Amino acid sequence: MPSQTEPTSNDAQADAHHPAPYTSHFVQAGAVKLHYLDYGTAGLPAMLCIHGGAAHAHWFDFIAPGFTDDYHVRSLDLRGHGDSDAVEPPSYFYSDYAADVNKAVEKLDLRDFVLIGHSMGGMVSLLYAATYPGRAKSLIVVDTSVNLPPERIAKLRDVGSKPPRDYDTKEEMVSRYKLRPGEALAPEAVVRYIGSRSVKQVEGGKWRYKFDRSVYATRESMDGRPLWDKIRIPALLVKADHSERISPELYADAKARAPQVELVEVSNSDHHITLDNPAEFVQKVRGFLRKG
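and the corresponding structure tokens:
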């Protein structure tokens, strides 16, 4: 049965940061059981959100309240992340993630939906839209570098190849939690809120991060720029003003391949835009969606 979770008064209540209530569900995507959050509102057009690497569905808790008046908003945990199944032997390629999204979309019968992807999830969303056309109505790619440099890939693989560090208590782990990469501009309460949902208790009573380290150890190099050649739906790139991942060159290339692509910039934000400045993110994205 789905469980209803309401934010408590001690959760992230800083400035305009207010997490949405949600229900927790699972959907079977082939052999992989995927977890997702449902923020409501049933009967309205669908919106599906895809998080970045080593993150999880709660990255969208703070932007969901800005959309539920007009959309039925859901946020998915990718395989090996959050409360979704890990895969053994490891299979964490972009094509795996995109195929999972396709299966979940079909199971949930999402049609004419808005697809939002952050960071690695932006690449997954771009690949999904290019490979499985016909269901997504619009695509929003958030602070995603679609062609990670080799040195970045090597660093991720090095991090993933090391054994996980276990902690004695949840509080110890949450108190040490940091948003990476980039400089987190979110209030401390927001970082703590995300940190408390990023850990799990494992055998022996220890605590560990909620993602399979093979996600990093097997990270592939992929140039996503040619995927824009196949995108025909309205699309938006969302850039953080403190981040250079969406460079002028990347936008120009996407625009040349898919002339309908637009760009907006969110102020007072770094890589984790949906946590740093959710209010402006919602404002800019809603402005784009109103055109459709």
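(Above: one complete record from the training split.) The chain has a mean pLDDT of 91.
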